[in-house]
Structures are given as C-alpha cells and as structure tokens.
Write the structure tokens for this entry.
Amino acid sequence: MKLGATPRHVGLIMDGNGRWAKKRLLPRTVGHGAGMDALVKLTAHAKEAGVEYFTLYALSTENLKNRPQSEIDGLFNLLRKYFTGNIGKLREGGTAVKIIGDISVLPQDIREMLQSAQSGSPEGAKFTLTFAINYGGRPEIVRAAQLAAASGEVTADSLAKNLYTAGLPDPDLIIRTGGEIRLSNFLLWQSAYAELYFTPVLFPDFSVKEFDKALKEYSERNRRYGGIK
C-alpha cells in the first residue's frame, strides 16, 4: 500500500471485545482473547507499515473500577498468557516496550511482568509499543500538574515533561474500533492535534486490512495545525 504519509505515532482504543463475544453467545473473556489474537497481528503489521510508536489503550481506570472482578481477573490472566512470550519476540526484533498508567494497584506478578518488559527494552529501538494500563487522561494531567508545581514551574513544557508519555511524540492518529465516537479519557493532552478515525468494526474483527484503511484515510487528510495550506 502506497501512502502519501504514514503516521509516526498511532494510538489505538481497542473497543468491542465484549460485544463481539455477546453476538456469538460467548463469555466476554473469549472476546478479550480474540482481541489479543488480533492485536498480535496488528502490532507486527504496524511496525512493517512504518509506524514508529504504537500506543494501546489496554485497561482504563474506569474499566478497573467498574467492570466485574471476574472480567478483570480474566484480563489479567490474558496478560499473563500473551504478554511475556510475545513481548520477548518483539524485543528480539528491536521493539521497545513502555507502560503508562498507575500500575501500583495491580497484582504483584502483573506489576513485575510489566516492569520487566519495560526495563528490558533495547536501546535505540525503531519501534516503541506502549501499553496504557490502569490509565486515564485526566488523572495523568492532574499528576503531571502536581509534579510540575512541586518543581516550581507550571508551563505547557513542564507539564508535558511530567506526563506518563514524556519522551514520546504526540500521536498523529488515534483509531477507535467498536462504533463509539469519543476518546474515553485516552491521551487527552497529547491528542490536541491528532487525527481521529472511528470505525464500527469490533476489535477482534479489526484486521490488517481495516488498519490499512485508517492509514490510507490519514494519508489523505490535510493537517494544518491552525495554519493555511
């Protein structure tokens, strides 16, 4: 696929796993598992397509508070099943891993697994995979403002340096699957000038072909940043 421009940083809100399972009269955890399978393929393809940063909304602060504990436990089990092996393969291929969000409240083994993946990332990686886990944009901004204030200077630059995403470029494109048309507390500060792409496709069905549709539409947009082009 030839594109006029490839987004350097793509954010992905992976929505629709539960509804995908419900349509098939299956438990929601089966939908999350199908979503994990889709994600493995998408991550490899994003790297091949020239995306340098891929940020995934894996678990929001609201999810952790409001979903049934059985579903949360199922998500944690999926992380245990998929994370270590797949991340190891990605790291061998030169992928860096970054975790954003408050992971302090997660089970100890999950925390250790995430921290190990992040600390073991290769230096100078050409592809960075970021997982937003127990993440919310508003709490992130409040935390950054508090840290900036404690340092004695609250400016746009000092706040940005205290975000979880410090060191990452702002997203160029944010994709949301599942038919909802909102950001749901994802990268609120960082997405000020991001292009948004919404699709009704439920995440387990969001294939490489669907991802390429989003990249193609992005390449055809005119990003003016308040100017005239």
